[in-house]
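Need residues for this backbone.
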């Protein structure tokens, strides 16, 4: 709205939900949660101190390739 564009029945949170759904197709659920900035639940975060950077990198790369193919119509 700040930019003057309005899409009925749509919010920025819809993009976050779409990203999370797609991340689930690309990697393990706990990594998808970390990619959204969520903490691991319960004692999991106490015992698991990994940042899963390589797993995140792979998932982000695959996601970027998917988005790029849609935007450039190369799929």
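Answer:
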């Amino acid at each position: 709205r700040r930019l003057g564009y309005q899409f009925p029945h749509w919010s920025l949170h819809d993009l976050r939900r779409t990203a999370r759904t797609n991340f689930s197709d690309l990697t393990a659920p706990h990594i998808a949660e970390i990619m959204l900035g969520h903490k691991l639940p319960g004692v999991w975060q106490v015992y698991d101190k990994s940042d899963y950077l390589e797993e995140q990198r792979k998932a982000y790369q695959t996601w970027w390739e998917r988005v790029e193919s849609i935007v450039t119509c190369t799929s």
